[in-house]
Amino acid sequence: MTTTATAQDTVRAVVYARISLDRRGDEAGVDRQMDAAHHAIANRGWVVAGEPYVDNDVSAFSGATRPGYARLMRDVTAGRVDVVVVFQTSRLWRNRRERAEGIELLRAHGVSVVATKGPSLDMSSAYGRGMAGLLGEFDTMESEVKGERVMAALQQNAQLGRSHGRATYGWDRTYDATTGRSRDVLNAAEADVIRDIADRILRGDSINAITRELNERGVVSPADAKRPAEKRRGTPWGKQMVRAVVTRDRNAGLRVHQGEVLGEGAWEPTLDRGTWERVCAVLADPVRRTSTGSAAKHLLSGIAVCDVCDGPMRAATNRDVPSYKCAEKSHVTRNRRDADAYVNAVVVARLSQRDAVDLLAPRDLAHLEAAAEARALEQRLDTAADDYADGKITARQLERITARLRPQVDDALARARTVDDTPLLTGLVGAPDVAAAWEALPLTRRRAVVDLLLTVRIGRAQQGARVFDPATVKLAWR
User: Which one of 21, 195, 213, 454 is most buried, by most CB atoms within 10 A?
Assistant: First the structure.
């Protein structure tokens, strides 16, 4: 092997060490590589030129940034290096682009590579560069084959409903001695949090309110839940975090791989399928009733309409008096406290009646029928796919069947997502003290209940009237 140094000069050798995955975080792998490299340098009588270049827990195949490698290449360019000592050439390169660029850079600066568990490569010679390229291709192939094996295993696990990766919020990973495999079991406390979030969403609470309450209670967020207590960062719940946790397909026991639902997962769900679908429908509906309640600060703003122009009534102040005012052309202005008190009293009176339980009866079962229709159509698609796999039908026939049934499935699924509003009344109907239960509700849910039960039209009062007239707030039961 030749280097840029002459016989009487000192050969400046540097060490590069890398390991792709350091599960324990103790850098034992790179330490062993550096020990072998320093031993080789000492045996050759070279001088270690500076600190080792280390990339711990970093892949060379993915193209991810490697700070140690980048610093090494900068020092090579600056002429500070004669020889790079590595454990194997695969530690230096696995990515084709980086290997080609690295070989050319080392050639240009007369830097050679010595592997303690492999050949010495003189990058100033065509043979050395050719060997580096050949060895590198085998290293790259090894990484690609490993990647293909991993992807195949992930696909198989997904088809069998198994989890992969780290345990997610709501479950703990445990080892099953019977099967010899790990499996996910419910984490009772985390599952209760998910169910509570779902229940509150169906009862009309806003994501903002739920997020704020979780943080006020000090509930550990998913960002910290799987960390040891001493390593938690105190990351708070956020609105997107709440939404993501409650809408995951996994909550309903569905196994998803690369964006496609493959079937049932091999774990106990946190939510039943119907509850999960209703939650997703509520949060996906751009005109859901709770959408106005999430930002509004008053009972009827955005819900009540002007009896003159049908425009929305908004909160305002009229001569220092809190009011509702027609947002279009100020046709109507009404004292806000009086209007709220009247609507509150009407709702409480209705929910206190003995027949209020009738409000909990399902008003429309069409969404349940649509869900059953969607499942039946999807079964027909699955049967067609199996028939094609068994050679019973041609690819053209499968294409025609799919083209005909898929729009029907999409239509049925859309109809199945009709939101059942009756959970909004849970805890009110049949309560020992409906008035107290009503006052204890957050404003977002009271607004949702009012909008569920009533249409509210606010009309003009008689000129000169100084006493609130309930007749000016026209209520109609839906």
Answer: 454
